[in-house]
Amino acid sequence: MTGGKASSAGAGSPEDRASPEDWGPLDFDGHRVEPGESAEVRLRVGESYVAEEVSVPVTVVRGQRPGPRLFLTASVHGDELNGVGVIRDLLNDQEWDGLAGTLVAVPVANVPAFLNQDRRLPDRRDLNRSFPGNARGSLTARLAHVLFSKVIAPSDFGIDLHTGGGERTNYPQLRCDLGDERTRDMARVFGCTFLVAGTGPDRSLRRTALKKGVPTLVYEAGSPRRFERPFIEKGKTGVLNVMRHLGMLPGRPELPPLVFEIDSTRWVRARAGGILDLKVELGQPVRKGQEISLNTNPFGRERSALKAPLSGVVLGLTRLPLVHPGDAVCHLAKLDREQLAAWREVWAAERAVTGPPPS
Ligand SMILES: [Zn+2]
Predict the structure, then answer these.
(1) How far, in Å, from the CA of 325 to the mean position of ligand 1?
(2) How large is the angle between the packed helices 229-245 and 82-93, nearest 10 degrees?
(3) pLDDT along the chain (359 residues), means of 10
(4) How many Å apart are CA 276 and CA 305, to the nearest integer?
(5) Are residues 275 and 213 in the same domain?
(6) Does residue 250 lie in a domain region?
(7) Three-state DSSP class for 196?
(8) Is residue 5 part of a domain?
(9) Residue 23 Cα to ligand 1 middle (Å)
(10) How many angstroms is it from 312 CA to the middle of ligand 1?
């Protein structure tokens, strides 16, 4: 492949250092993509029960000038749609004339699960616990292998777009390995206030990508099975910010007023079964001891009130007002006194503009 990707060493990789004369067409799975052009490719994965091809749609945008290769993945969990909206809007609305480098966008990474509106594949496996996959394994392993070998490993950087799972919704946040300098630099310019530190689960996309030398952010925002416009907008801004930071687009990232690196979070779980009345909303700053939810029995009698075990911010909430004992109700990130005061101001200003978050 002329001028193609030779390593995944990130900024400073051979692709970045190439002179404009060296920047040529990209061979993507046998498709030749000329500088300044884009291609719509279907990556073949396997076959369905009715012997039809199972393939993953990918859009490759090759810049006029040399630069890094960035991948975007959405719907790795098949019912998580906000990221599909982010990529759709980027591909529809954005002019790529000034692009340096290559954008590889996968709006529906987990096609078999997406078709069923399900988090997992029909074999009940979780694609996000299956990387780097196996060319001769199950459908899930083969899908992971195709994505990893053709999209993820040949890239310099990546962004994987998710929402809360099941009945849970997330305040827009990044999850990434802040111990890796290039990952941290990307995370700090994305546009999210809350960067939740962690290497990610074993065999997850982001953890496996970084092991291969491809710093990858996970953007988590909103809930599955819907398009939530404010969260899609924020994700789109984040992708463009990262592309500006990497020199793929002109201009500077639009930085958020606050960026907090979060080391510890805690799930608050129901103590009794019943019908739930939430007393907090996504993103809300809470004090230790503040009431999070009230739980009643079908006769309306109070069963239990959950209180915040720490002072911090509501990063995630259940959307289902019914709980068994032990069910996750609220995901809290710990903030210190100064952070809490600063966030209180920013959140109030943001909420005054956008109204309450989607629920
Ligand atoms: Zn997910």
Answers:
(1) 24
(2) 60
(3) 38 48 90 97 94 96 97 98 98 93 98 96 95 96 98 98 96 98 98 97 98 98 97 98 98 95 96 95 97 94 93 97 96 97 95 80
(4) 10
(5) no
(6) no
(7) strand
(8) no
(9) 35
(10) 23
